[in-house]
Amino acid sequence: MVLQAGYIVKCVLIILLIFSVTSWTIIFYKWRLFSKADDENATFMNIYNVSKSTKYLYTSSKKFKLSPLARLFKSVYSEKAYTDNQ
């Protein structure tokens, strides 16, 4: 059926196939990225629950590049340090 189709139809199907493969590649990439961020969040929360020192927590949060919680903590800690110095 597809082999008997015209040139335009074949071109459209090839374009659709390329976009489909690209879409699935992006979906799997994002899924992997969110999984890593979730793992980093869990690890950061474990450190947060155990840690007694905010300075130690701040230095250990620098290694979590994908964790939104670690980024939030770094921002809050930096802002608090900035306002304490003024």
Secondary structure blueprint with pairings:
Elements: H1 7-50, H2 54-61, H3 68-84
Explain what this protein looks like in three dimensions.
With 86 residues, the protein is mainly alpha-helical. It has one domain. It contains 3 helices and no strands. It is rod-shaped. The termini are far apart.
Keywords summarizing the entry:
86 residues; mainly alpha; 3 helices; 80% helix; rod-shaped
What is the general shape?
A: rod-shaped
Q: Which blocks of ≥5 consecutive residues have pLDDT under 50?
A: none
Mean pLDDT, to the nearest integer, reads: 93
Sequence of secondary-structure elements: HHH
How many DSSP helices?
Answer: 3
- What proportion strand? under 5%
> Taking Cα atoms only, what radius of gyration do you get, to the nearest Å?
23 Å
Measured as a percent range, the helix fraction is over 70%
Give the number of domains: 1
Largest sheet: none
Give the N-terminus to C-terminus distance in angstroms: 75 Å
Could you give a quick summary of the protein structure above?
The protein has helices at 7-50, 54-61, 68-84.
